[in-house]
Amino acid sequence: MTLHEEEVIGKAYDSRLMRRLLAYLHPYRWMVVLAVLILLLGSFAELLLPYLTKVAIDRYIANKELAGLARLALLYFTVLLVQMSFIFFQTYLTQKIGQKVMYDMRNQIFAHLQRLPLSFFDKNPVGRLVTRATNDVETLNSMLSSGVVTIFGDIFVLVGIIAMMLIFNWQLALLSFTVLPLIFAASFWFRVHVRESFRKVRLRIARINSYLQENIMGMSTVQIFNREKKNFRRFDELNNDYLQAYLETIYYYSVFHPLVELISALALAIILWYGGIRVISGALTIGVVVAFVQYAERFFQPIRDLSEKYNLMQAAMASSERIFKLLDEPEQRLLPENPAEMPPPCGEIEFRDVSFGYNENDHVLRNVSFKINCGEKVAIVGATGAGKTTLINLISRLYEPTSGRILLNRIDTALYPLDNLRRRVRMVLQDVFIFSGTVEYNIRLGDQSIPMERVIQAAKDVRAHEFIEKLPQGYQTELSERGSNLSVGQKQLLSFARALVFDPEVLIMDEATSSVDTETEILLREATTRLMAGRTSVIIAHRLSTIQNVDWILVLHKGEMREMGTHNELLAKKGIYYRLYELQYQN
Ligand SMILES: Nc1ncnc2c1ncn2[C@@H]1O[C@H](COP(=O)(O)OP(=O)(O)O)[C@@H](O)[C@H]1O
Ligand SMILES: [Mg+2]
Question: Which residue's CA is the closest to the ligand 1 atom numbered 27?
Fold first, then answer.
C-alpha cells in the first residue's frame, strides 16, 4: 500500500455513492424538503422580476400611468424583499443541514476507528485517517451545503429563463441562444482543466499534511540529527508543488470568469442590436428588450455556477468514496456469535499450537503451546524481535491468532465479549500512553464507577502516591500531552496504578527497557511485586529482579518457544536462556 494514495478522476455523479450519501440526509429530510421548496420559490421570484420590469415599461411608463407605476414599484420591491428572505432561510437551512451531517459523519468515523483492529492501524498512516475525518468530511459538506441543493435552483432558473424568453419572443430568444455553443465549449474547457488541477491540489496538500505530521512527531530526532535543513528543503519542494497546482487552478478560473462575461456581453449585444431593430420597426416593445437583457444577465450565472459545482461534486464523490472505504473496513467483533458462559475469575491461560503473522506467510510466532495455572507468575524472555510483545498482544486479542487457540479459564478467548476479556486481562504497555487530563483521569481512565478511594489506594499500592502528592495539584494536576511533565519512572508507576485500579484477574506487562536510576528501579521492583500479588501475571522481563520473582520462565527464540522452566533449571541447561542471561542480566 502506498503512503499517498493517488486519487483517480472519478465521476461527478455516482448513483451508488449518492444513495449512500442521501441516507445521511434522512434524519433531516423535512429540513431538506423545506430548503428545496424555499429555493424554488426564491428562484420563481427571481424569474418574476424581469417580467415586472417589462410591465412597468410597456404598460405604465409608455402610457404615463403614474399611479400604476408606483404600485408596480412597490410590488417589485416586495418581491425583492421576499426573495431576499428566501435566500436567508435557504442559506441558513442548507448550511445547518450540512453541518449536522458532518457532525454525524465525524462521530461515525471516530466510533468506527475505535472498533477497528490494530492491524488496520499498522497499515494506515495517522495523517491519512485524520484527513478522512476532517478534510474529506469538509469536502462533502461543501457539496451538501452549496452544491446539491442549489443545483436544483440553478436548473430551475435556467429552464425558467429559457421558457420566459421563448414566451416573450421566440425569434429573439433563439437568436440569443446562438451563443450557447460558445458557453458550453468554454465550460467544457474549464471543467476538464480545473478538475485535473484540483486533483493535484488535493493530492499535494495530503502530502504536505503527512510530511508535517511525521516531522512534528519526530521533531526531537530531526533536531538531534541536524536534519532541519534537509527536511526543510523537502518541505519547500512539497510546498512549492502545492503552490504550483493552486496557481494552475487560479489561472483557469481567471480565464473562465472573464470568458463567461465576454460571451454574456455578446448575447446582450445581440439582444440590443436585433431587439433594437425590431423595436424601431414596431414589432417589439422596449419592455420586452429590457426584460430580455435582464434574463440574459441572469442566464449565465447558473451556467457558470454549474461548471464550478461540477468540480465540487467530483471532489465530493472522491471524498465520499474514501470515507465509505474506511467505514467499510471490517470492525472487530465485540461480541462473539455464541458467547460462552462466563467463568468465575481464576486466570488460567493456555496457548494451544498458536501461530501468528502480521502479514500472511510471514509468521512471527510458530506453534506456541504452554499453560499458565491460576495465580502463577511467568516471565517471557528472548532477544529483541523474538516475538514477546506479539505473544502478549494475542492474549487480549489485540490481534487474532492465525491458527491455534488461546484459552482463558479453559474457554477460548474468542468466545469472550471483547470488553469482558479486556477487563479480566489488563496490560501494562512498554510505552506508557498518557492522555491529556488530570492524574486522576489517567488512572481511572474516565471510569466513574471507581470510587476515589480506590484510585488513591491503587496509587499507594504501587508507590505512585508519594510523587503524585508532591505534584502542584496532587491528583488534580493536569498532565500535558503524552505526559511530558512526568519522568519515565513516574509514567511507569502511573500505568501500574492504572492497571491495579481495575483489579484484573490476569496482569500482563511489557517491562520498560529504558534504564532508570537505582532508586526508581527499587521503587518499580516493589511496585511490580505488588501488582503481581494474588493474580496470574505474564511479564516480559528486562530486569533481573523481575525474573527472580516469577515461578517459571518461557524462552522465545525467533517466534518459537524453545525452553521453559525455573530460573535455576534453565541456567543448568546452559541453553538459550543461559546465554541470554549471561549477556543481558549478569552485569
Ligand atoms: N505491528 C507490526 N506489524 C508488522 N510486523 C511487526 C509488528 N510488530 C512487530 N512486528 C515484527 O514481529 C516480530 C516480533 O516483534 P515483537 O513481538 O515486537 O518482538 P519483541 O517484543 O520480542 O522484541 C519482529 O520481527 C517485528 O518486526
Ligand atoms: Mg517487545
Answer: 385
Residue range 461-489: mean pLDDT, rounded: 87
CATH code, domain carrying 433: 3.40.50.300
**Which residue is associated with the grid cell 501500574?**
496
Which runs of consecutive H residues, i.e. helices, occur in 364-435?
Answer: 388-395, 418-424
Query: Which of 275, 312, 274 is CA-nearest to residue 291?
Result: 275
Question: What grid cell was written down for 483?
Answer: 505526559
What average pLDDT score do residues 105-115 get? 94
Read off the pLDDT band of 587 (50, 70, 90). low
From the list 177, 165, 179, the residue with the least C-alpha distance to 284 is 165
Instruction: Tell the burial category of 67 from Cβ atoms under 10 Å away from its Cβ (0-12, 13-18, 19+).
Output: exposed
Are residues 251 and 398 located together in one domain of the fold?
no
Cα R_g (the chain), whole angstroms: 35
pLDDT score recorded for residue 1: 31
**What per-residue confidence (pLDDT) applies to 3?**
38
Report pLDDT digits (tens) over 483-522.
Answer: 778 888 889 899 999 999 988 999 999 987 766 778 888 8
Is 243 a member of any domain?
Answer: yes
CATH number at residue 233: 1.20.1560.10
Looking at ligand 1, which atom is closest to the CA of residue 119?
A: 1
Residues 300 and 415 in one domain: no
What residue type is assigned to position 288 of the chain? V
**Residues at Cβ < 5 Å from ligand 2 ion:** 389
Residue nearest atom 16 of ligand 1, based on CA coordinates: 387
Structural domain harbouring 545: 349-585
Examine residue 342 and state whether it is found in any structural domain, yes or no. Answer: no
Is 438 found in the same domain as 321?
Answer: no
Cell readout for 400 is 487474532
CB 389 within 8 A of CB 540: yes
Q: Note the pLDDT of residue 14.
A: 77
Are 133 and 109 within 8 A, CB to CB?
yes
The neighbour count for residue 178, using CB atoms within 10 Å, is: 11
pLDDT: which is higher, 338 or 467 = 467
In a domain, 314, yes or no: yes
Number of domain units in the chain: 2
Cα separation, 462 vs 525, whole angstroms: 10
- Per-residue pLDDT tens digits for 355-410: 999 988 889 999 999 999 999 999 999 988 999 999 999 999 999 999 999 999 99
Residue having the nearest C-alpha atom to atom 10 of ligand 1: 358
For residue 529, is it within any domain?
yes
Ligand 1 pocket, residues with Cβ under 6 angstroms:
122, 358, 364, 382, 384-390
